[in-house]
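Q: I'm writing up a methods section and want to include an example of the input and output format. Could you take the sequence below and give the corresponding predicted structure tokens, formatted cleanly so I can copy it straight into the document?
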Amino acid sequence: MAEICYKYAKLPEDILRLEAMGNFSAAEERIRWLLAKNIDQDLRARLEYELERIRRIPKDFDVPEEEAIKKLREEFGNYAITKFEEWISRGYVDYILINGKRYFFRAFIDNLLFLCDEEICKELKRLREKRARSARETLIKHVEEIVQGNEEGFIKPRKVGVRMTLRVLPNTLEPGEIVRCWLPYPVENEQQGDVKLLGTSHSQYQIAPSQYYQRTIYFEDKAKEDGSAEFWVEYEYTIKAFYRRINPNDVKPFDEESELYQRYTSEQPPHVIFTRRYKQLASEIVGDTENPYLKAEKIYRWVAENMTYTYVAEYSTYENIGEYVAENLRGDCGFHAILFITLMRISGIPARWQSGWYANPALEGPSPHDWAQFYIEPYGWLFADLSFGRYWRTRNKILYEFYFGNIDSFRTVFNLDMMGNFYPPKKYLRSDPVDNQRGEIETEHRNIYYDRITYELKYKQA
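A: Here is the clean output for your methods example:
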């Protein structure tokens, strides 16, 4: 069960219209008017969530037009200014209206480079990719060693040390008020284990039991005099790569009465829902294929071929991520994973979420990353990294094939499902209700959102 679900009620048309026009203050006034009425619980939950959502959206779209033009000129020169409106009309530049003015997504230039196929965009993209060449070469070597070896299963263990620090910015909290913090903490399973806690910022803490699919370490403290707070944890763990050669002829039918099958072929509102459009898409992709593994392969290849990678706003600002992906065919690694999971479940193949950090040793630091798993009899749980598959599809065939079924060991795994409960439970809507990679903060009175939090990660080979 998830701690928060946005229920099934749809927003009234007048609220949707006000938001589309960028009149968020009027939309909020209308929502509060409705909440004062005797309405059903589903609609009430949806409206209460919407109040929080429309407060969060402008935090991602916080670049006014004059600043956006300045940033474009710095990246592209004056040429970009002549193309500005054309790029907007083509959907390359993300913005929203707020009180009649255009405000642009904080990562709008990055997304422009992902979407635009003009030569000036390609050249800037090539320059940026050169900076990550060492990390790509390190990953290629790692994966090729796995594929060319004779071992299968969970292999090539790496011991890694991590220190994560989360800080609440000054003037955020009331001095002395109780602050509650959930930092992500490594799960323990066949893939990842030997987790050893090395140190914490506070002597009192609670580590979530292993049955929690989104594992955390929990702290409480009083806010400092300047309205700030700080929490940190240090640990080490062992992570293994996974590689398995699959013979489709050995694949067996599922036990459709099993708990595993029932759970991981079901809808998971609000983001994994079997809409008519999704059902039609899944049917077109798999065709008359009956073998579950070959179905999964078709879905993997379709996602890799048709999705575009772009940065997205915070997940909590999307009412239905699956619907957004189906309509736009773009998004980040988590959006790719949700698309894959939804199509797999509709096709009768158990699939689930996995996430944490991608921590390539050649990178300066790790970054949040999401991927998927799918279940095939008699092989068990296999892996699918959809955004990695999409990236390597035209660049390296070995890696493209590898990321269907297998996974590297440059990972820290915190989450084995979406929208999992916290331990102890969180009172207020999380900053990210879907996932937990950066930590969560709340007081007795409110959630503390990401714009008032910073976090720092330090990795080392243990």
